[in-house]
Amino acid sequence: MKGTRWRRVPWVSLSCLCLCLLPHVVPGMTTPSVKTDGGRAPSPTPTTSQAATSATPSTATHSRSTAAPIPVPAGFVHGTGPGAGDREMTLVPFSKGQTDCLFTDNGQIIFPESDYQIFSYPNPLPTGFTGWDPVALVAPFWDDADFSTGQGTIFYQAYETLYGEHSLPVLQVESWIRKITNNGGFKARWTLKVTWVDAHAYPAQWTLGSNTYQAILSTDGSRSYALFLYQSGGMQWDVAQRSGNLVLMGFSSGDGYFENSPLMSQPVWEKYRPDRFLNSSSGLRGLQFYRLHREERPNYRLKCLQWLKSQPRWPSRGWNQVSCPCSWQQGRWDLRFQPVSIGLWGLGSRQLCSFTSWRGGVCCSYGPWGEFREGWHVQRPWQFAQELEPQSWCCLWNDKPYLCALYQQRRPRVGCATYRPPWPAWMFGDPHITTLDGVNYTFNGLGDFLLVGAQDRNSSFLLQGRTAQTGSAQATNFIAFAAQYRSSSLGPVTVQWLLEPHDGIHTFNATGVLLSRNGSVVSASFDGWAAVSVIALSAILHASASLPPEFQNRTEGLLGVWNNNPEDDFRMPNGSIIPPGSSEEMLFHYGMTWQINGTGLLGKRNDQLPSNFTPVFYSQLQKNSSWDEDLISNCHGDSSCIYDTLALRNASIGFHTRAISKTYKQVNATLNQYPPSINGGRVVEAYKGQTTLIQYTSNAEDATFTLRDNCTDFKLFENGTLLWTPKLLEPFTLEILARSAKIGLASALQPRTVVCHCNAESQCLYNQTSRVGNSSLEVAGCKCDGGTFGRYCERSKDACEEPCFPSVRCIPGKGCEACPPHLTGDGRHCAAPGSSFLCRNQSCPVNYCYNQGHCYISQTLGCQPTCTCPPAFTDSLCFLAGNNFSPTVHLEPPLRVIQLLLSEEENASVAEVNASVSAAGRALGGRGRLAGSGEAPASGNPIQHWMVTSEFQYRPWGPVIDFLNNQLLAAVVEAFLHQVPRRSEESRNHVVFQPISREDVWDVTALNVSTLKAYFKCNGYKGYDLVYSPQSGFTCVSPCSRGYCDPGGQCQHLPSGPRCSCVSFSIYTAWGERCEHLSMKLDAFFGIFFGSLGGLLLLGVGMFVVLRFWDCSRTRFSYLLHSAEASP
């Protein structure tokens, strides 16, 4: 591939895909984009390395070019080229800086670890994808391509359909995915289409044929898929010219999840003709389909984006008209707020919420000391838990702080800086009243009275009370209250409190009011606006009422004119005013002017009232000589207690009156008491290893500062001096507390903490951050320079970062050595020298090769036809089989499953444990994939125990089966024995677990050899046997290599199966199907027969001669003994 070319697309698009597809490689601090890259050595004709980009992003909604479209390849998505809205890679100066994925001329879509890790990886992995691949990558056709001669191009287009936009290409992709997955509910939210047109193999000057193919990545935010489409007849590279590793198709997530194309186990020429591959699921030829997600999981970033789209850009009017109480203690006495249980802020937090029909509501969170932490607006009080979900999507459950900023733009945080406590008025005892302006007086009128009436432009409020005579005494007390609220958005809402025997309270209420009971106290909050609280003690109702500031200067009744001016509180209905300090008789007269004539909110009375009731006044009781000092001794000078005790001759009632009076004074004090402030930096920035000092102060002299949670990197002194020396990238939320011992109140401040872990401080980008877990800690982005790369620019670029051509060694600091003999290039790109015009007019004879052998014209053999045969064949024409080869997977076997018990002390999350278990699997040497699925442990224990389930794939080749069945458990134990402690700058995929033993690992699922045999098949000539050995796994073996023919027979594996050619030897002739029979040759028989006869004849003649000779010798030398004896 020539040149480095890239393209940026909308940030939101790629983020959705990357989160679902390859979450661990998405850089946390960058604005996502797409690039194409292909840094390579020059091809035989030198060219200048350049890059490509365009001025604007590409989406499905951009304007279209009027250029004529490129002809639509068979099976491709809705056309290709400028006429179809695609963008072409044009050559302009290269620019770095913002990337989440890039696609290259070499048929790859790469997800690098950082912006600056841009490599083209021209040479495919020799072993295919294994799970330990150097980078996350999707490969529709990974092989060394060359665009340097100007031949071929790349088109791409991104379709953003986050909000249901209509797009014909996306509809087509959705249709294919639904058909293949049988999932009719798939709705794409983002789709990327990349098309390689007329791509030539390296070097383009010397190679024949080009490839045209397309890759489509599509996600709905939780599920992601890849479709590879190959133009029919458009995959024309000549495999005979490929000198290095063969093409690779499939994908790898970089963390153990991967899949290789089914063509990877097919003959080499089939790999290079993927356009002929038939997808059984779709019925389409030239289509490959991959599920890119390991498991379905919610995409909170997508949920957040969709929610943001549905909301107005700015909050509605009135959002800032309500604040949170500054402490839990303060809020509990503000009857507009009610305690609720949301469970959003975690353990130790408490919440108060207030709701109004016309401006929504607010919920406030408080810590263990009552310190205010944060507040949020909600719209519907009956669905506040669901309302707060978007906050979790945008601010808690993703690592992009800018999404939280966008959320807060639409739902601004609620603070307590503008909080103003309510102005309560009190009615207690026989009745003693404190007006809204704080004026105290006693009024013992008998009847129904208007306590307060208030009205503004949007709402009105009425509170009425009913009194009865207290026993036989000349005093009265409240026995009932009724309140009514109206607003422009809410009809009249009425609540009644009625005294019952034994200090019970019976209530009548309509919908639209929040009624709560706390022991004997019954409170009502009217649309979060006005509030009334009633308690029954000693057969008397005591009440308090609070109004919002909007009712100031708009009140009348016994609770006075609320205008912060106590001089005019005793204003009568006719407008005349009785001055404060008037006699009790005058005040009694004033109060009776507010008696309700007719039927009020409490209805008609059942009892008959006397027409001339006059109460006893305090001055009269003082003059009474029967003043009992002992009776009022417990009043301690409290006038209301003295009056009730003496008027009723009941010390218990007086005691209750004093207790309630004291409580009301404490409530007033608490409502108007604020916790100490915290003044100082709201954003703290620091560089790793360096100490940053921040000074915090408070308006309270006795305030002491502490941290809510201790962390070794932070140190906070009681005087507010904060020291931060960042060492570890552990999730941590910095929360500063300031507590006043004098008033017992505390405040909390949670500043943003941004740490830079870049290799050099000059590389820090504090305005581009990502959140570390669910915490306030953010990591600054890095702008790498000086030949560095990596997320923190911690790695230096080296010529050996990209692999060299197969069998070529790389020298650190220098680069690749020379290409192998008979090849030319720079060591990373190598090719056989030659001319592409030498054999241009030559072609293979029809059916020259048998059995799907591939015929090509060999330049090295003088343009002669040559066959490339499947591995089973032994001859040059692919007719005779006999070689061994690896079987194919006929049915996917069950997974090998184990469980292991792990322990750690790093407070790791489920995701961190799973990533660390996958990383620990590298110790298995690629023989198995140790990918975890951890079960969350119980919290509260410093040592966390995890039950991890790991799965492994059985494969027929190599020692995989023997390893998984006989060595796996011991290898897993060893993998967790030798763990390297994690460096502070490393991400959380290296949790250090405690060593484990054999008892901590056990089998769940394992298949023996005989069971596994059914899942593999020998696709080739008939008669091949599936043979297993621990060293090589399953192998398809021809009977010819296992002594199929008896001695004297030559074995040939033909299409019908093995066949024996019997060969004569010695005097015998072999015969039979496997040359198992022997017979003697006829000429040999007669030869032996006549030879034997001749031999016998010669033997007889010889014996005759010997006997004859023997007889003759005996006659010649014989003597007559008796003759000798007779002579004289």
Helices and strands in order:
Blueprint: H1 11-21, E1 34-36, E2 51-52, E3 87-88, E4 91-92, E5 101-104, E6 108-111, E7 136-142, E8 145-146, E9 153-160, H2 168-181, E10 190-201, E11 210-219, E12 224-235, E13 248-252, E14 258-260, H3 268-271, E15 287-291, H4 300-310, H5 328-332, E16 338-340, E17 350-356, E18 360-366, E19 372-378, H6 384-387, H7 389-396, H8 401-410, E20 423-428, E21 432-434, E22 440-442, E23 448-455, E24 459-469, E25 476-487, E26 490-500, E27 504-509, E28 513-518, E29 521-526, E30 530-537, E31 540-547, E32 555-556, H9 584-592, H10 618-623, H11 639-648, H12 651-671, E33 683-687, E34 692-695, E35 703-707, E36 714-716, E37 721-724, E38 736-740, E39 745-749, E40 752-756, E41 764-771, E42 777-782, E43 788-789, E44 795-796, E45 810-811, E46 815-816, E47 824-825, E48 830-831, E49 854-858, E50 864-868, E51 888-889, E52 896-904, H13 910-920, E53 934-935, E54 944-952, H14 960-975, E55 1001-1005, H15 1009-1012, E56 1016-1017, E57 1025-1029, E58 1033-1037, E59 1049-1054, E60 1057-1062, E61 1068-1071, E62 1077-1080, H16 1082-1116, H17 1121-1126
Keywords: Disulfide bond, EGF-like domain, Membrane, Signal, Transmembrane, Transmembrane helix
Transmembrane segments: 1084-1110
InterPro entries: AMOP_dom, C8-3_MUC4, EGF, Epithelial_Barrier/Signaling, NIDO_dom, VWF_type-D
